[in-house]
Design brief:
Layout (H helix, E strand, L loop, with lengths): L9 E3 L11 E3 L11 H76 L14 H15 L11
Antiparallel strand pairs: 1-2
Helix pairs in contact: 1-2
Length: 153
C-alpha cells in the first residue's frame, strides 16, 4: 500500500460503526472543511459514548439473565434429582413391605401347618421352632415399618 497525502483531513470514531451512529467526518473537496464539523464531531463522540454505555449495560443485563437462567436450571435439576431419589426410596420401601408381607404370610402358614422345608446344607437348623424364631427376627430387621429400623434424621 502506498499512502499519498490527499490534503483532506478526517476524524473517525473507531469501533463504533455497529452502533448505528455517524462515526466519520472529513474534509470535502470544496464545500466543507473539517474545522466546520468539529462541533458535530464532538456531539458524535458523546453519542458514541452513550451508545457504548448502553451496549455495555445490555451485555451486563444479558449476562445477568444467562446467570439467572443457569441458577434456575441448576435448581430444576436438583429438584428433579431429589424427586428421583425420593421415588427410588419409596419403591425400595414398598418392595421391602411386599417382601415382609409375603414372608410373614409364609411364616404364619408354616406355623399353622407345623411344617417348613429346612434343607440342612443352607439352613442348618433342625427344628421348625428354631427356623421360625430366626425368620421372625430376620423379617423384623427388614420391615420398613418397625420403629427400630427407621433412621433418624
Amino acid at each position: 500500500w502506498d499512502f499519498n497525502p490527499s490534503g483532506l483531513l478526517r476524524l473517525q470514531i473507531a469501533d463504533a460503526s455497529y452502533m448505528g451512529i455517524r462515526t466519520l467526518w472529513m474534509d470535502g473537496e470544496k464545500r466543507q472543511r473539517l474545522e466546520g464539523s468539529l462541533n458535530d464531531f464532538l456531539i458524535g463522540l458523546v453519542k458514541a459514548a452513550e451508545a457504548m454505555k448502553r451496549h455495555r449495560a445490555a451485555l451486563v443485563e444479558a449476562e445477568k439473565r444467562r446467570h439467572e437462567e443457569t441458577l434456575r436450571r441448576i435448581e430444576r435439576d436438583r429438584l428433579r434429582a431429589l424427586d428421583e431419589g425420593r421415588a427410588k426410596e419409596l419403591h425400595r420401601q414398598a418392595e421391602a413391605f411386599e417382601t415382609v408381607t409375603r414372608i410373614r404370610a409364609y411364616l404364619a402358614k408354616a406355623q399353622e401347618t407345623g411344617f417348613a422345608y429346612l434343607p440342612q446344607d443352607t439352613v442348618q437348623m433342625t427344628t421348625l421352632g428354631e427356623w421360625l424364631e430366626w425368620a421372625t427376627g430376620y423379617v423384623n430387621r427388614i420391615d420398613p415399618f418397625r420403629k427400630e429400623n427407621q433412621q433418624t434424621e
